[in-house]
Amino acid sequence: MRYVKITFWVLLAALVVAFFSYNLPKRDIVRITGTEVIRTDLSGANRFFYAEPDSGNSPQANRDLRLINTVFESGKVKVFRNEDTGLFGWPPYFKIDSSNMHAEAADLVSTRDAPVWVAITHYGWRSEFLSIYPNAIKFKVVEGPDVRLIPWMSIIILLLCVAFVFWLWRVWVQFKERKIDPLLDDANNTIEAVDQRADAAKDQARSWWARLTRRKP
Question: What domain of life does the native source organism fall in (predicted)?
Fold first, then answer.
């Protein structure tokens, strides 16, 4: 039973970490090397990792996908997708301007000799095996690749989640104190009373049996 509990909590912790790792916004400082639109099939196992098509269009299993090709200062490349999340999609980033972002990204394409460094805010994972890309939410031009950016949005979201969990815990504690603990106390008192009556009945039976079997001199 102990190993089952440990396994449960480890899996739960892994799910929580994966959830925040995928959904929390992250920022990369990169140089945009190009943009493209590819036709892709979203009917496979990777469909879960894609957002919505352009706002106002109906979802399709096979549709165009906007990509933003980038490279880090180290030379490592990274490809972002540029999709709307919509007004009611998940994660709730309310992105409906992927067309405009694609035009802005194309305008910021630069070369190695004359780099324009861009901080791209995104969420999601990059996996060559699953053919999935992080989704770019927004970007802004920065002075260089070494600019220090504080992830205020992620910090605020995590603090709000911690506050929400703490609130749920307080609600549960108060509910337990007001509703569950009195019921448990009543149950314990009832059990103790039954035990006391049972003990009294046993003592009375022993006394009656002793008087019945007592021999007269």
Answer: Bacteria
